[in-house]
Amino acid sequence: MEYKTFETERLYIRPTNQDDAAFIFELMNTEKWLQHIGDRNIKSVEDAAAYIQSKMTPQLTKLGYGNYTLITKNDQQKVGTCGLYDREGLEGIDIGFAFLPEYEKQGLAYEAAETIKNAAFTDFGMNLIQAITTKDNMASQRLLEKLGLQVSGTTTLPDDTEELLVYKIEKQS
Fold first, then answer.
1. 8 Å CB contact between 47 and 41
2. Mean pLDDT of the chain
3. Could you count the other beta carbons within 10 Å of the beta carbon of residue 24?
4. Which residues form the N-acetyltransferase domain (predicted)?
5. Boundaries of every domain in the chain
6. Can you say whether the dihedral through the CA atoms of 136, 137, 139, 142 is positive or negative?
7. CB 24 within 8 A of CB 48
């Protein structure tokens, strides 16, 4: 099956696949990923490949969207991920993003997330998307607000104790 890909001024946005295992390994072991998203126990490139196969690919196959790898147009570097996630313990679809530290604060997260948010409403027919973030992740909160999402409450995911902020945005008719 052919899945949707997207382009922005500076990025190619395509579904994450096995070729991204080394990049996913690096990203999931950055300090901010571990602090704000959580340890997924990805200790090798092989673990990352298995994670892509068991966690990312099934949702893409089932729903037609999922985790996207972000690649710079100017030098073909894999810089981050953005996606729409059907998360356990959360009703509805969640937008999320993560970047390698050296690519933060360049506007790339907004560029990618705005594209994925718009795709949720136009290409994938959603009427509502949500996001979750830790209470101390101010950069994530600012980006969600810039995207038009607003705090709607808090939640705690299964097998976790940390209370997370829940943001929502509805499709504008």
1. yes
2. 94
3. 26
4. 11-170
5. 6-170
6. negative
7. yes
Entry field: residues in the chain: 173
Name the DSSP letter for residue 3.
P
Q: Return the structure tokens found at 77.
A: 């570097």
Written as six digits, the tokens of 42 are: 């990805």
Please compute the mean of the pLDDT values over residues 49-78 and round it to a whole number. 96
> Is residue 149 within 8 Å of residue 131, measured between CB atoms?
yes
pLDDT at 156 over 90: no
**Residue 20 token pair:** 């991204």
Residue 160 has a pLDDT of: 78
SS3 label, residue 167: strand
DSSP, collapsed to helix, strand or coil, labels residue 125 as coil
Helix (H, G, I), strand (E, B) or coil at 139: helix
| pLDDT value, residue 1 | 65
Task: Report domain 6-170's class.
Answer: alpha beta
Whether the pTM exceeds 0.85: the reply is: yes
Give which of 173, 133, 162 is closest to 150, Cα–Cα: 133
- Which letter, b or e, does each residue of 43-77 get, where b requires 16 or more Cβ atoms within 10 Å of its Cβ? eeeebbbebbeeebbebbeeeebbbbbbbbeeeee
Cβ contact 13:5 at 8 Å: yes
Q: Cα–Cα distance between 144 and 116 in angstroms, integer?
A: 12
